[in-house]
Amino acid sequence: MKAVFSRWALVAALATAPLAQTVAQVAPAPADTTRKFENPGGVPAAVKQPWYKGKLVKATIVPAVLIGYGAYTAGGGGFYTNQEARRDIQRLFPTYRTRLDDLLILAPYVELGVVALAGVESRNDRLNVGLVVLKSELFMLGTVFAVKNLTRNPRPDGSDNQSFPSGHTAQAFLAASIVHTEFRDKSQWYGVGAYTIATSVAALRMINNKHWQSDVVAGAGFGILAAHVGYLTHRNRWGRKPGLPKGMSLTPTWQPGGGMGMGMVWQLQ
Fold first, then answer.
1. Phi, psi of 120 (to 5 degrees)
2. What are the CB-based long-range contacts (under 8 Å, 24+) for 87-91?
3. Any residues with CB less than 8 A from the CB of 254 and at least 6 apart, and which?
4. pLDDT, position 31
5. Which of 38, 92, 181, 251 has its CA 20 to 30 A from that of 56?
6. What is the pLDDT of residue 75?
7. What spatial distance separates the first Cα and last Cα of the chain, rounded to whole Å?
8. Closest CA relative to residue 184, chosen from 196, 173, 192
9. CA 99 to chain centre
10. Cβ distance 97 to 156 under 8 Å?
């Protein structure tokens, strides 16, 4: 009997040996835990964009070109000089003078208010739009008048030495840039209208013999730059709880016998 039992044990061992070897061969290798905290959850790492695709570069490239060209032509350079532009303007409008440019500098802000009152939703609420406008205006006024006092370029009519850059043009393009940013997701035509008004202000400043071509080109650059600075420095939105989507709010709740809790309200737009 003992011999028979030993024989069956030997047969069983020989039969299970290949299976055990196969399991050992396909068993996965132990995980490398030394790098488990580098990418938790297996979420793909964000690809870092090159510097020239950053927000700062995109925000400053157009203003830099306008200000640079204005500064270059202010010294008498350019393929179409200040003197040539003034000569052509004087030929077309020899006696025309108007105060319309003093009124149109704030017209884009009027457009901003009218469109908002009409029910068109802007990118930011009224409080945050006001804060962006305030910061942008302070930056624009500080830079424009600092450059005016540094350069002291005489105006075409010789009235003073505050020609470069054009403050009227900077103000108009600042307001137009804010209109474009707030409503471009709704329609590009709001921005087109605002920039058309700003361009008209620049043209009227030259027609009125108050500014050179270089002054208004650089003024447009300073205005656009100021608006971009206002938005780039406005990261935290006032009046919103950090980390919550727009329209979502959290309120404390109390349930008898259940203690305190937190309720979430999400208003669909």
1. -80, 125
2. 89/206, 89/207, 90/209
3. 260, 261
4. 56
5. 38
6. 84
7. 86
8. 192
9. 33
10. no
Structural tokens at position 155: 């105006």
**pTM of this prediction exceeds 0.85:** no
Residue 49, helix vs strand vs coil = coil
E strand or H helix at 86: helix 82-92
Q: What angle do CA 214, 75, 61 make, to 5 degrees?
A: 55
119-130: buried (b, 16+ CB within 10 Å) or exposed (e) per residue? eeebebeeebbe
Asked whether the CA dihedral 93, 97, 103, 105 is positive or negative, the reply is positive
Among 11-25, 69-83, 130-144, 246-260, the range of highest mean pLDDT: 130-144
Select from 112, 104, 238, 134 the least CA-distant residue to 181: 112
Residue 135, Cβ neighbours under 10 Å: how many? 18
For residues 233, 235, 240 and 244, what is the CA-based torsion angle, rounded to 10 degrees? Answer: 180
State the chain's maximal CA–CA distance in angstroms: 131
Q: What share of the chain is helix, strand, coil (3-state, %, to 5)?
A: 60, 5, 35
Q: Can you tell me the mean pLDDT for 53-58?
A: 74
